[in-house]
Prior knowledge:
Keywords: ATP-binding, Cytoplasm, DNA replication, DNA-binding, Lipid-binding, Nucleotide-binding. InterPro entries: AAA+_ATPase (IPR003593), Chromosome_initiator_DnaA (IPR001957), Chromosome_initiator_DnaA-like (IPR020591), Chromosome_initiator_DnaA_CS (IPR018312), DnaA_C (IPR013159), DnaA_dom (IPR013317), DnaA_N_dom (IPR024633), DnaA_N_sf (IPR038454). It is found in: Cytoplasm. This is Chromosomal replication initiator protein DnaA. Helix content is 55%, strand content 9%. The protein is an alpha/beta fold. The chain has four domains: 72 residues, GMP Synthetase, Chain A, domain 3; 166 residues, Rossmann fold; 78 residues, Helicase, Ruva Protein, domain 3 (Orthogonal Bundle), CATH 1.10.8.60; 91 residues, DnaA protein, C-terminal DNA-binding domain (Chromosomal Replication Initiator Protein Dnaa, Chain: A, Orthogonal Bundle), CATH 1.10.1750. The strands form two sheets. The chain has a five-stranded parallel beta sheet with strand order 5-6-7-4-8, sandwiched between helices. A three-stranded mixed beta sheet has the order 1-2-3. Helix 11 crosses helix 12. It is globular. About 7% of the residues have low confidence. The protein binds adenosine-5'-diphosphate (ADP) and magnesium ion. The site of magnesium ion has 4 residues, from helix 6.
Amino acid sequence: LWGQVCNELQRTVGRTNFNTWIAPLQLIDLSDGIVSFEAPTKFMCDWVSRNYGEPILRELRNSGVAAERVAIRVPEGRPLAPPPVEARPVVEKAPVAPRRPLRAIEEQELPGAPLDARFTFDSFVVGKPNELAHAAARRVAEGGPVSFNPLFLYGGVGLGKTHLMHAIAHELQTQHGELRVLYLSAEQFMYRFVQALRDRQIMDFKELFRSVDVLMVDDVQFIAGKDSTQEEFFHTFNALVDQGKQIVISADRAPGEIKDLEERIKSRLQCGLVVDLHPTDYELRLGILQTKTEAYAARNPGVIVASGVLEFLAHRITTNVRVLEGALTRLFAFASLVGREITLDLAQECLADILRASDRRVTIEEIQRKVAEHYNVRLSDMIGPKRLRTIARPRQVAMYLAKHLTTRSLPEIGRRFGGRDHTTIMHGIRKIDELMATDRQLAEDIGLLKRLMES
Ligand code: ADP
Ligand code: MG
């Protein structure tokens, strides 16, 4: 009888809708006018009840069943609503009933970002600054049981976060083709979410994101301050962790330092393994340059790099790997155009601007000037004796920045601030550190000033 009703339903709601929403239903019981079904997930229960309850009832009645109500629930033994998150330790989890495949969802293409074919483990050079991040990424790429969740990778721009995430995805795709791996940026996550809201396809969105085995979200700091996206991210995150699915997240800073990110999300992000990619050191930079040069030479036989050139670049270009790579690319292009061997002279000539930019060091004078400008106080007050709060505070900010943006010692900084004692400088820096924890405006001011001077 149900089969007959299904045939009718397929006609009335359409084949796709039928396959997506009604086919996965299991007819459980029919008594007292109540028709009971089981659906694989809570979302499906809600969605089907709301959207297909009426048609189902109608078709049942047409077939002569005295049905009054449709009831849809998840199979016994699976909690309807997840218990509160705080009450659940992440590490030890009760085994979850295997998920019934949602065919329509699983056949759907994942809305991931394209992977860069060059970002593999093979092309990733490991050094002290990134060895931990690399090892953790390797572990995740094994596709074995989840040992930490999430893996949270953070570090400054161009240090290899995206590269590592793509490498995980590549590795899983080749070794574990059966796993559904979804990689995307937090920005794309938001975009999809907003689109789903607009198109009223939020249930599809939820189902889709909850159907993956490995979810990787790059640059998660992007969703800070975006309230409903954060909320949705949080639920997706929890749903996947509950199912024992692996999550990998990256950000430009540690979870606790992402401003305008909900506390509960921060604490969830800290639950797994948090590893940072440190700024590169000389050896790593040299290793990267050598690896890239070898790869280039393999593709372009005849290219000659004089000895000392790579060492020179590794020594002088310290900003980040992206800049380093850019320099090398330009060098190769230039050399092939002019048909010359790559010598130190050629490097200096063709990379003059990059080298100059890398050489730039912020001076204490510059910091004092920018801070004075920002707070609209006189430059002379930076070094003067006034104790007025409106002047003393900016002065302390300048001390703080001098400590963080230059390599000057405290006594040296003291001398540049009108001959103050190093303990005064230390006190000023501590004060700012303390205030920043609670004073958002101040923290923002400092972030802004830093960016101004670092660029
Ligand atoms: P992030 O996402 O941290 O900003 P990316 O992963 O985009 O940085 O890396 C920037 C560039 O530097 C990429 O081209 C990447 O391949 C390269 N890169 C970064 N770290 C390494 C490394 N350890 N070995 C090889 N290439 C690297
Ligand atoms: Mg990146």
